[in-house]
Amino acid sequence: MTRTLGLALSGGGSRAAAFHLGCLRALHDRDLLDRIRVVSGISGGSLLAALWAYGPPDFADFDTRTTDLLRSGLQLDIARQAFTPAAVIRNLTAAARASTRQLFTRATDVSVARPANRTDALAAVLARKAFATATMADVTHPGLDVVLTATDLATTNAVRFGSARSGCSRYGTITEPVHVATAVAASAAYPAFLPALERTFTFQHPGGHHEQHTVLLTDGGVYDNLGLSVLEPGRSPHHTQHVYDVPFIIACDAGVGELPLQTPHFMTGRLSRSFVTVHRKAQDSARSRLHEWAASGRIDGFALAYLGMKDHRLPAPPADLVPRSAVATYPTNFRAMNRTHFDAITTRGEQLMRTVLPMYLRSSQR
Predict the structure, then answer these.
(1) What are the Cα distances from residue 202, in Å, to 59, 96, 183, 199, 241?
(2) Using CA atoms, how far apart are residues 297 and 294, in angstroms rounded to an integer?
(3) Is the C-alpha dihedral spanning 108, 114, 119, 122 positive or negative?
(4) d(CA 305, CA 355)
(5) What is the end-to-end Cα distance of the chain in Å, rounded?
(6) Contact (CB, 8 A) for 303 and 250
(7) CA distance linking residue 258 with residue 307, whole number of Å
(8) Suppose 112 and one of 98, 198, 264, 324 were both cysteines; which one would form an S-S bond, judging by CB atoms 3.0 to 4.6 Å apart?
(9) How many C-beta atoms surround the C-beta of residue 230 within 10 A?
(10) For the whole prediction, is pTM greater than 0.70?
(11) If you ran DSSP here, which 8-state letter would residue 128 be given?
């Protein structure tokens, strides 16, 4: 079967991972997973993309392993890994050294200052519980490409970890193998709670020479929370290592949609609400690009399953639809998910994908 689909899995932590699992269940039932050419993951979407792309080839086995991981959560394992006495001493020493360097020197170079932090603990937990020593090249589905995106705080560029190649537009292509656990942890390092993952890679510059650079990797959602930029039609290979001209795009968006009213009179509330506003407008703009690409003929069509869509706007909602209000406020912090919440989020993902797929299937048969 020819692979012609691009799949984008948005950020949103554990809420996103569970929602995307439901979406993949619907795609599997329609025999569409084998038609996916490339999957682009961000944050929680990176976790789910990696669990599928580097997990068991059999979908039922993948579903079971993913369910177990999300139900058990990652928070406690991260705490156990990060707050052992030895890890605490290493982290505090590194943090003190980094603070001293920043306060008393004018160094402008970027170097690894905090080699042992909570995000390193997340990478270790992911390696132990899911990915072992697998590298980005070790995809278990032949013909599938994977791109997991993180953001480099030093350059403000995207760093894309791919099954074919990894790199950054500013520095070039990473020459070393990248572990899947490292890529997922970097993509999921939500900056409010997790420090940047600091790594030094050897990059091959476009001119051919090699040079080492240190990157400070944080949540890929800072750069592109929907994961659609990788799939944009007409990308130039002169400016990016990742070009995928797929005619159809399936996007899974775990955003919460319309937010409740607030009265942010004071500074903390004003800053928080301002950030939310900027983020929301960026999300709206990314979704609108799908419509623009289709309207201009740059892609043949798309299907968008959006967790935060208002229920009454669905074209043909099922009678037993899990309402948006039941899932939109679920946290994103990778804590253990109880059965009720997990089933509600995955079921809504499956229901929404089943609802929008007929639109894709009609356009694909033209």
Answers:
(1) 36, 27, 16, 10, 15
(2) 5
(3) positive
(4) 8
(5) 18
(6) yes
(7) 11
(8) 198
(9) 25
(10) yes
(11) I
Q: How far is CA 263 from the centre of its chain?
A: 31
The Cβ of residue 96 has, within 10 Å, a number of other Cβ atoms equal to 10
Half-sphere exposure (CA, 13 Å, Cβ side) for 45? 30
Residues 149 and 160: beta-carbon distance below 8 Å: yes
Burial 30-58 (b: 16+ CB within 10 A, else e): eebbebbbbbbbbbbbbbbbbbbbbbeee
- What whole-number distance in Å separates Cα of residue 215 and Cα of residue 274? 27
Q: Measure Cα distances from 96 to 85, 100, 341 in Å.
A: 16, 6, 40
Please report the DSSP string for 323-354 in residue order: PGGGTTT---S-----HHHHHHHHHHHHHHHH
Q: CA 182, CA 256: separation in Å to the nearest integer?
A: 27
> 5-9 and 248-253: which strand pairing?
parallel
For residue 198, give the H/E element and its range.
Answer: strand 197-204
215 in Cβ contact with 168 (< 8 Å): yes
Return the CA Rg of the chain.
20
The stretch 8-28 carries a mean pLDDT of 97
Chain centroid to CA 21: how far?
13
Q: Is 171 left (phi over 0), alpha (psi -120 to 50) or beta?
A: alpha
Taking only the tens place, the pLDDT of each residue in 89-143 is 666 666 666 666 655 555 556 776 667 789 999 999 999 999 999 999 999 999 9
User: Which of 101, 366, 77 has its CA nearest to residue 248?
Assistant: 366
Q: How far apart are CA 60 and CA 293, in angstroms?
A: 34
The span from the CA of 354 to the CA of 325, in Å, is: 19
Q: What average pLDDT does the segment 16-27 reach? A: 98
Q: How many C-beta neighbours within 10 Å does residue 200 have? A: 13
CB within 8 A of 226, min separation 6: which ones? 8, 10, 11, 42, 251, 253, 283, 286, 287
